[in-house]
Design brief:
Elements: E1 3-10, H1 14-23, E2 31-34, H2 43-46, H3 51-55, E3 61-62, E4 81-82, H4 101-110, H5 118-128, E5 129-130, E6 145-146, E7 148-149, H6 156-167, E8 183-186, E9 188-189, E10 191-192, E11 195-196, H7 199-203, H8 206-209, E12 214-217, E13 221-228, E14 231-239, E15 242-254, H9 257-267, E16 270-271, H10 273-278, E17 285-286, E18 298-305, H11 318-331, E19 343-347, E20 358-363, E21 367-368, E22 373-374, E23 379-386, E24 394-396, E25 407-409, H12 416-433, H13 436-439, E26 444-447, H14 455-465, E27 467-468, E28 500-502, H15 517-533
Helix pairs in contact: 1-15, 5-15
């Protein structure tokens, strides 16, 4: 007989882990958490500096790729997403940032998302994090996600970015997740004891996983949401080599991310009617907005040569790499116990912006292009990530099977403002590199090179090098049900379908000015409370 649970959560990523842990605190309800990927028991996930091996590992990630970029020489951008317990929090770079307060106020005031202002979401950020050094007005100290930062032993390059940035007039902030996001500072990481603290490791502890009212099925594909009379009843899944049905007594919640959640909605007959019909899918509810509003944080990387012995080059190969690995396996210390994004910050490239429009981030090893191969000499790179790209993309169905990923149209550089952001950020970076702090480290620009200043040469370089911060969002946009273009209401309920919600990065009406992992966990936390406060059809 089909199994029945009170709640069925599809996707054990950042939001799904938080949601499952919080809902299952109520012992008189039952929760099923479904994940297509495997368990997260792997040293590659634990070791902070092994992140590159995860992004290209099909065992732990969905190997999504974009359609050729129409505005960037038909280049294809890889878009890996987590396919493992913990989702993308198990394969990401572990940089912990929450976003600017105005991001959430904009959701509430401009997009009608009542209950999602900064004042509304701050308690959930505090509830989920363990950051005991922070101002308790803004930071949490007892949460499941352990946050660390390097303050006393910064590398020479990281120290130069902070001091040099302040020298050229950038503000300094002591905590970009505290009262003031804007400024250069040390970065925060969800790393503890030399190991990654993913959503799975933080929320799904051994104690939580042993709860009798929580079941976790890995290696289980959600094929279709079962809908009767515009009401979600459960999910058809592929598990242990066969298809089976699992029923949701109260609700089904999609936490499959910005690509997975809209894809499953469309496969279940909820989405743009024209696309559904073209792919042989019966239309249950027509909504052209599903899969639209696709946003990301595009980025460029400036690369520099520097003085020998101050970066990570010596650990990239040979005996030093082996010793570094052994140090981590034996003691969880050393160079591989960090992600090495020590310094960065959020800045405005001109005074017209009401909040930071670019994130600066230094990594003490320059990697060539999309191949992620280090230079043969000592090097570093500064990553410049646009926080307010005006371009919007979309997802397009390719078949009626979950095993065929949708087309991903990123549509980078569709708006001229995006070029301006990158041009201004390059100019600002060059001012910082010209400071005595970096000149003392023999910093020398190698890409794009001092000959590329502005105009056609700069535009051409941006088109050649633009890449992704892996922050796709917005494809199940949140907003009032009565306004066209929205997919879920501010209670995260799918508009037009009962007992069905979406809770992940896809619900953001506008992507936050930050890495999206912390926001996704916050969405999972808030979804748990929204569900608890609802009236259910049992």
């Amino acid at each position: 007989m089909p199994e029945t649970f009170d709640y069925v959560i599809v996707g054990a990523g950042s939001a799904g882990c938080a949601l499952a842990a919080r809902l299952s605190e109520q012992r008189d309800i039952t929760v099923l958490l479904i994940e297509a990927g495997p368990n997260d028991a792997s040293w590659r996930i634990d070791m902070p500096l092994a992140v590159d091996s995860l992004l290209t590992n099909d065992r732990f990630s969905w190997p999504f790729k974009s359609e050729p970029l129409q505005n960037a020489k038909q280049r294809v951008i890889c878009q890996p997403r987590g396919r493992v317990l913990g989702g993308s929090s198990s394969i990401n770079g572990m940089v912990y940032t929450r976003g600017h307060p105005l991001d959430y106020d904009h959701w509430a005031n401009e997009h009608g998302c009542k209950g999602w202002s900064y004042a509304d979401v701050l308690p959930y950020f505090k509830r989920m994090e363990h950051a005991p050094w922070g101002d308790p007005t803004y930071r949490g100290i007892n949460g499941p996600i352990k946050i660390s930062r390097e303050t006393s032993n910064l590398s020479p390059l990281s120290a130069a970015l902070i001091t040099g940035g302040v020298r050229v007039g950038l503000p300094y902030t002591s905590d970009y997740n505290g009262q003031f996001q804007e400024g250069i500072t040390v970065e925060e990481q969800n790393i503890a004891g030399g190991k990654r603290c993913s959503a799975a490791r933080g929320y799904l502890t051994k104690e939580v996983r042993s709860r009798p009212n929580l079941r976790i099925w890995t290696g289980t594909w959600a094929l279709q949401i079962l809908i009767e009379s515009k009401c979600a009843r459960g999910v058809l899944v592929a598990r242990n080599g066969k298809d089976e049905i699992v029923y949701a007594r109260r609700e089904t919640i999609l936490c499959s991310g910005s690509i997975g959640s809209p894809h499953l909605l469309m496969l279940s007959g909820i989405g743009p009617a024209k696309q559904l019909i073209e792919n042989g899918i019966k239309v249950v509810h027509d909504n052209d907005a599903i899969g639209g509003n696709l946003q990301d944080h595009p980025l460029i990387k400036m690369r520099f040569r520097c003085k020998k012995g101050i970066g990570l080059s010596r650990f990239a190969s040979g005996p030093a790499k082996i010793v570094a690995g052994l140090n981590w396996f034996l003691f969880k210390t050393g160079v591989t116990a960090k992600n090495h994004f020590e310094a960065g910050g959020y800045v405005r490239t001109n005074s017209t912006h009401t909040k930071p429009n670019v994130k600066f981030e230094l990594f003490p090893l320059a990697l060539t292009g999309d191949l992620h191969k280090p230079y043969a000499f000592e090097s570093f790179q500064i990553v410049l990530t646009s926080q307010n790209s005006q371009s919007r993309g979309k997802l397009i169905l390719t078949s009626n099977s979950v095993y065929d990923p949708p087309k991903i149209e990123l549509n980078y550089l569709d708006k001229p403002e995006d070029f301006q952001t990158f041009t201004e950020s390059v100019a600002l970076t060059r001012k910082i590199i010209a400071t005595p702090e970096f000149q003392a480290l023999d910093a020398l620009e190698i890409d794009p090179g001092p000959g590329v200043v502005d105009g056609p040469a700069m535009i051409d370089w941006v088109k050649d090098t633009i890449s992704t911060a892996y922050h796709t969002s917005g494809t199940c946009r949140m907003g009032p049900a009565e306004i066209s273009g929205n997919v879920v209401d501010p209670q995260l309920r799918v508009i037009g379908i009962e007992n069905l919600r979406v809770a992940d990065a896809s619900i953001q009406p506008v992507v936050v000015s930050a890495n999206t992992n912390a926001t996704s966990m916050m969405i999972g936390e808030r979804a748990a409370d929204l569900i608890r406060m609802s009236n259910y059809r049992v």
